[in-house]
Every structure is written in C-alpha cells, then in structure tokens.
C-alpha cells in the first residue's frame, strides 16, 4: 500500500469542522468529471475544489459523504483497484487502502453510490449538496431522494430540506489555514519567478507565445501543476482586451507587454499581472500611466487590513485612478462627480480584486446582509487596478493603446497584510533593471 498523505489528519479535521457546522443531516460532494479534449484524449485532470479541500483525494470518479449528528461519520466512494487499467493509466487507491490512507470511517466502490446513498439518507432531516451546478448531478440527487421517499410505507423518512453546500464550504474556504498559506506562498513565489523570467527574456521580435512558453517552463520546473488560468500575454493594443488569450502576435519595439499569469501549486492559484516595455525602457507616456496604476495599487494594498470592508481597497484605487485620468486629460470634472457617475469605467471597467485560493476567483461572500464584509486575518485576495486606453474621441494620441494592470496576491494578517507575490519586480526602476540584466 502507498503511504498515507502526510496531512491526512488536517483533512479529517476539516471534515469534522464541516460536520459541526452542519449540526445534522448529510453532505454529499462529488469531485469533477474528467473532460474529453478530443475523442479519447482528456484534458489534464483537476479535482473539484470543494471535494479536494475536504479530502486531499485527487482521483476522478469519487464522492465524499459526511453524516453529521451525535456520531459524525465520513465516507468515501472511489474507483476500485484494477490492474488492467492501472497498467494503462497508473495507480488507483481502491476503497480499502483509500479508507486507511485518507482517514475515512468507510470507503466503497463508486459503482455502489446509487445503492448506498438512499440508505445513508434514510431518516435524515437534510441533504447538503451542490444544487444547480450540474444538471446530471441534480437529477441523481432527486433520484436518491425519491428512492428514500419510496420507502415511506416502511416508516422511512426522507430529507425534507435541501441545502446548497456552498453556504458552509465557501465560508470555511475563505479563511486559509497554515497548509493552504504555505501552498499559496509557493504558488505566488513560482508565479513571481515566472514574471521575472519573462522580463529578463523579452525583446522586440519575439512572439507572445514564446513568452508564454517561458512562463510555463518556470511553472513546471518548480513543480506547479499547471497555469491556474489561461495566461494572458498581451502586447501593445492587446493589453486593452481584458481576457486576451490568443497570445499569437509579435512583440513590437515601443509597445508595452501585459502579462497576467499565475501558477497553480498544490491546487492553489497564484494570480499576478505585470506590465513592462517590450524593449526594456518605459517611454514618457507609458511611464506616466504606469506610475498612476502603481500608485493606485499601493493605495489599494494600504487598505487591506482587518476591520476595513471589502470595498475599501477598490474605492482607494478608483480615487487615485480617477485623479490620474484627469491629470492625463482623459476625463474632465470633479473627482467625486466622475466616481459617482461611473464615467471612469471607460478606462477602468473591472473591480480591484477578488478572493484567491483553490479557485482563482475563489469562493466566499463579498457582502453580508447587504453590506460589504469586513476583512479578517487569513483571507487572501488580489489587488489589481489597471488603466486601458483605447483609441477614442477625446483620447490624446500619445496615450492610445496603452493598457496597464498591476496585480498582486495579498494575505490579510493581524497587523495589516502581507503581499505574497512581492518577489515580482514592480517599480519602473526594478523592471528596467531586470530587463537590462
Ligand atoms: N487572472 C484572472 C484575474 O486576474 O482575475
Ligand atoms: Mn485576479
Ligand atoms: Mn490576474
């Protein structure tokens, strides 16, 4: 048998904690299905984030069941051992060894799920699961419920309450524990190294995809599984396309290059954006815009501390950006008026951050009872202001097609915050220095 994962007890604690939050009822969470890329070739497999957070178990075709109450129990359904399949596709735990290694009370073959679930749901008051995310899963949940209801005349009660499991799991995942923070530091560190490498290698005439290859090289050689999301490598005007992912154009002397790329390490996302000149030297207008975005980001990060509300960093960044838009003669009027009317959205159309974790846009509510929630230690988020200046009426020619975003990964600490991605060069002087080298 392969050894137990070293953090098995941590995952057991997470499951126990979830069951305490549930108080009663049953939670059922499936991992992600495998996805076909073409015919019989699959995309690289990635487990469902909720399932992975609860189990640390990374095989496809698996389901975790938590039975809360006075005697909490947790079960795993997974693929059986299969020598033939293991020769072709590699190791499988099988229920017997998975139970011991991952610390479940019992584990069964996934083929028994539809038979056992109605038994596990009998006389339970509530079923917690994902609702509405996957039609096939919804149908299966209803089939289990109906199978329990069919036993009504034998005196068996079916759950009367169906609960979206995200309510409990999202909130718990919002606060990162030490294992998660270690992984996030590593994801951010690897990502920062990749941005540095891109700066060091970039020169006019290379293609965007050649820079993307350097990022990927750096991710993989440090043990990151994959990019946490599609890398954006956007030269010149492409930087003004927020989700540009074609990455197939040549890089031109005199243009900027915006890279939004992060590694996924141990399941956790890095999410960093840097913008720098293809030829290694910011020209006048590029530097003017860059310094505004940099100041906006500093203002946002300065607002990341316990007790401040979620939107405080965004509000601080917007204020700096709007003053900058006025200084650049992109907008006219009073700062407050331009903020109130939303006129600034012509050049800054996204928000300044999001939760970060197993999902790049991680789970967790941003408002509670209609009010922005307060930042607390252990939360992780991004700070990513930008300015995107497309050619348009009234836009000075010298600023046309400048697109700049600066993004870092930030942990809320007791004292304020820690920038996890601080190793990625960021000031004009630092960037030009790396590019000279
Ligand atoms: N890379 C995705 C984001 O910055 O939100
Ligand atoms: Mn982001
Ligand atoms: Mn990003």
Topology:
Blueprint: H1 8-22, E1 25-30, E2 36-38, E3 41-42, H2 49-55, E4 63-68, E5 73-78, H3 83-89, H4 94-102, E6 106-109, H5 113-121, E7 126-129, H6 135-149, E8 161-164, H7 166-174, H8 178-201, H9 208-221, E9 226-227, E10 232-235, E11 256-261, E12 263-265, E13 268-269, E14 272-277, H10 284-302, H11 312-327, H12 335-341, E15 367-368, E16 371-372, E17 380-383, E18 386-389, E19 402-405, E20 408-412, E21 417-419, H13 428-436
Parallel strand pairs: 1-7, 5-6, 7-8
Antiparallel strand pairs: 1-4, 2-3, 4-5, 9-12, 10-11, 11-14, 12-13, 15-16, 17-20, 18-19, 20-21
Bound molecules: glycine and manganese (II) ion (2 copies).
Glycine (GLY) binds at residues 229, 260, 271, 354, 360, 384, 407.
CATH topology title of the largest domain: Creatine Amidinohydrolase
Any idea what the shape is? elongated
Mean of residue pLDDT values = 97
If helices are DSSP runs of H or I spanning 4 or more residues, what is the number of helices?
13
Report the CATH architecture of the largest domain: Alpha-Beta Complex
Helical fraction: 25-40%
Describe the structure.
The chain is of the alpha+beta class. The chain folds into two domains: 166 residues, 3-Layer(aba) Sandwich (Creatine Amidinohydrolase, Chain A, domain 1); 262 residues, Alpha-Beta Complex (Creatine Amidinohydrolase). Helices cover 37% and strands 19% of the residues. The strands form seven sheets. It has a six-stranded mixed β-sheet, with helices on both faces. Strands 9-12-13 form a three-stranded antiparallel β-sheet. Strands 10-11-14 form a three-stranded antiparallel β-sheet. Strand 20 and strand 21 form a beta hairpin. Helix 5 packs across helix 6, helix 8 runs antiparallel to helix 9 and helix 10 packs antiparallel against helix 11. The protein is elongated. The termini are far apart. 42% of the residues are buried. Bound molecules: glycine (GLY) and manganese (II) ion (2 copies). The site of glycine has 7 residues, from loops. The site of one manganese (II) ion has 5 residues, from loops.
């Amino acid at each position: 048998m392969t050894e137990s994962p070293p953090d098995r007890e941590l995952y057991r604690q997470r499951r126990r904690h979830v069951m305490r939050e549930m108080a009663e009822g049953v939670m059922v969470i499936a991992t992600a299905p495998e996805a076909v890329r073409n015919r019989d070739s699959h995309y690289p497999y990635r487990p469902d984030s909720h399932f992975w957070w609860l189990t640390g178990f990374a095989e496809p075709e698996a389901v975790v069941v938590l039975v809360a109450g006075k005697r909490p129990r947790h079960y795993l359904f997974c693929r059986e051992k299969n020598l033939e399949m293991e020769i072709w596709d590699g190791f499988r735990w099988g229920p017997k060894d998975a139970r011991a290694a991952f610390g479940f009370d019992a584990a069964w073959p996934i083929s028994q799920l539809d038979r056992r679930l109605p038994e596990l749901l009998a006389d339970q008051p509530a079923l917690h699961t994902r609702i509405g995310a996957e039609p096939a899963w919804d149908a299966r949940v209803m089939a289990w419920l109906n199978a329990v209801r069919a036993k009504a005349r034998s005196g068996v009660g079916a759950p009367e309450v169906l609960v979206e499991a995200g309510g409990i799991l999202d909130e718990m995942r919002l606060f990162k524990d030490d294992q998660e923070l270690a992984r996030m530091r590593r994801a951010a560190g690897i990502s920062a190294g990749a941005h540095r490498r891109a700066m060091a290698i970039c020169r006019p005439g290379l293609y965007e995809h050649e820079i993307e290859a350097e990022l990927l090289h750096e991710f993989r050689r440090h043990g990151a599984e994959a990019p946490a999301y599609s890398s954006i490598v956007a030269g010149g005007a492409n930087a003004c396309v927020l989700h540009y992912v074609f990455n197939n154009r040549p890089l031109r002397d005199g243009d900027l290059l915006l890279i939004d790329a992060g590694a996924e390490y141990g399941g956790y996302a890095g999410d960093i954006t840097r913008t720098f000149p293809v030829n290694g030297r910011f020209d006048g207008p590029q530097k003017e815009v860059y310094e505004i975005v940099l100041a906006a980001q500093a203002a946002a990060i300065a607002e990341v501390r316990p007790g401040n509300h979620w939107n405080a960093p965004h509000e601080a960044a917007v204020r700096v950006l709007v003053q900058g838009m006025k200084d650049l003669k992109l907008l006219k009027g009073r700062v407050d008026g331009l903020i109130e009317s939303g006129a600034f959205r012509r050049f800054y159309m996204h928000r300044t951050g999001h939760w970060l974790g197993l999902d790049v846009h991680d789970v967790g509510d941003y408002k509670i009872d209609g009010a922005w929630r307060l930042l607390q230690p252990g939360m992780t988020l991004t700070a990513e202001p930008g300015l995107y200046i497309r050619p348009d009426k009234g836009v000075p020619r010298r600023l046309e097609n400048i697109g700049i975003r600066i993004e870092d990964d930030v942990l809320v600490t007791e004292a304020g915050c820690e920038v996890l991605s601080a190793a990625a060069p960021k000031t004009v002087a630092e960037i030009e220095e790396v590019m000279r080298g």
